[in-house]
Amino acid sequence: MPSPARIGELNERSLHRALKALYTAPGSLSEQLIDGYVVDVLTGTRIIEIHTGGFSRLKRKLPRLLENHALTLVHPIAKDRFIIKQAEQADVAVTRRKSPKHGSVFSIFAGLTSIPKLVAHPNFALEAVITVEEEVRVPDPRRNRRRGGWTVIDRRLVEVLETHRIESMGDLFAMLDASLPEAFTTADLAAAMQAPRRLGQQAAFCLREAGIVEICGKAGNALRYRRCGR
What we know:
The protein is of the alpha+beta class. It has seven helices and nine strands. It has helices at residues 4-10, 14-23, 61-66, 108-112, 169-174, 186-193, 197-209; strands spanning 29-34, 37-43, 46-50, 70-85, 95-98, 124-139, 150-166, 213-219, 222-227. The longest helix is centred in the last third of the chain and has 13 residues, at 197-209. The protein starts with a helix and ends with a strand.
């Protein structure tokens, strides 16, 4: 029968494995069963949990682990991504192109909508790892051409550019505060992050849930926000 370590490693992609290797210090343990969950790395008394996708799957796992353990959630964000397409035919050349989309530390707000209040937990810390990545795609007959006709089979770490350690939602807001007016909308948040309006809306939700900002009125159909305590 496979051990929990083997079970955990079966679902790992290259990006996850590479980050786990970076966070596995000498003397630390990997793929440990703690409080009913397999965790990526245990270094001393701190759990290192690496998650490359959305955070909704962590809504039960993290609160349970945080009851008794310090935990750092590591999440990669691709500042630059290269898309590699591998055809099924051996004689068809592999293509590699740079995606026009660029992530930043603020991209973390999209994931935090699933766990906005957890960031304030005294045992919790978050590290946003800004990367250069490769995304490998192959043809998928289940996806029609209107949906692209390709599916992602792997993500590869090319380079780590920088790491941001976030210990509260206030740490993220502090990166934006100087660029915002006294009262601001989600459009102002998006502009401060140089990101789409959708991310501005997600940031506003996270900041409200964390008690960093509050609604103070409307500008047309748009809600206006201000810093709490002002």
